[in-house]
């Protein structure tokens, strides 16, 4: 039994020095492996962030180039009109191609979101809901949805159904207000 606390400390240091003398290489090797794994993980996270930003820039560039067509070809402005009368002037080939480009772009963006390499932009649902409620995009969608991936069809159909449900709900509330008012 040691008689002073210093002798316990000396014994502990002696045991450590003896252990370190015989295991220093293993300790160094383990430290190197752990540090290597840490830096690899950090590098992977940084690479993922960079890839997401790159994907965002790429998607934004494609989005811009599609919508640039509206600026360069004013005949496409009718696609964005809620007053387009399809019974008077049917959808043109140019309008159909434009809407299909948007649908293809949306399909690519949805694949990127599903693959977790892109995050869903804020307001995407409402933006698409408004777009596909317009007469020309709605007509092109109905004509071409049979050629689309089931996930895309389900997504767009849910947006359109929600828009229709909101419209009916507003009408119903308006009519119930009128009924109460004049009853």
Question: Mind explaining what this structure looks like?
Answer:
The protein is built from five helices and no strands. The protein is mainly α. Helix 3 crosses helix 5. The C terminus is likely disordered.
What are the salient characteristics of this protein?
disordered C terminus, rod-shaped, 5 helices
Mean pLDDT: 83
Structure annotation, total helices: 5
Shape: rod-shaped
| Helix share bin | over 70%
Q: How many β strands by DSSP? A: 0
Overall radius of gyration = 32 Å
Q: Cα distance, first to last residue? A: 102 Å
Show unreliable segments: 177-183
Beta-strand content estimate: under 5%
H-E string: HHHHH
Structural class determined from secondary elements:
mainly alpha
**Largest sheet at a glance?**
none
Task: Give the arrangement of secondary structure elements.
Blueprint: H1 5-72, H2 93-114, H3 124-133, H4 135-144, H5 150-182
Helix pairs in contact: 1-2, 2-4, 3-5
């Amino acid at each position: 039994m040691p008689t002073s606390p210093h002798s316990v400390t000396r014994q502990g240091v002696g045991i450590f020095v003896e252990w370190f003398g015989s295991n220093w290489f293993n300790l160094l090797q383990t430290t190197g492996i752990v540090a290597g794994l840490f830096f690899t993980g950090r590098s992977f996270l940084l690479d993922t962030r960079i890839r997401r930003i790159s994907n965002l820039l790429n998607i934004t560039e494609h989005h811009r180039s599609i919508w640039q067509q509206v600026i360069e070809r004013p005949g496409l402005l009718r696609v964005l009109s809620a007053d387009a009368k399809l019974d008077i002037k049917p959808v043109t080939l140019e309008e159909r191609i434009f809407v299909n480009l948007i649908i293809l772009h949306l399909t690519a963006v949805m694949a990127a979101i599903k693959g977790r390499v892109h995050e869903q932009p804020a307001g995407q649902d409402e933006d698409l809901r408004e777009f596909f409620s317009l007469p020309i995009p709605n007509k092109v969608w109905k004509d071409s949805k049979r050629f689309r991936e089931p996930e895309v069809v389900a997504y767009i159909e849910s947006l359109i159904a929600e828009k229709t449900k909101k419209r009916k709900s507003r009408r119903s509330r308006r009519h119930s207000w009128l009924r109460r008012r004049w009853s």
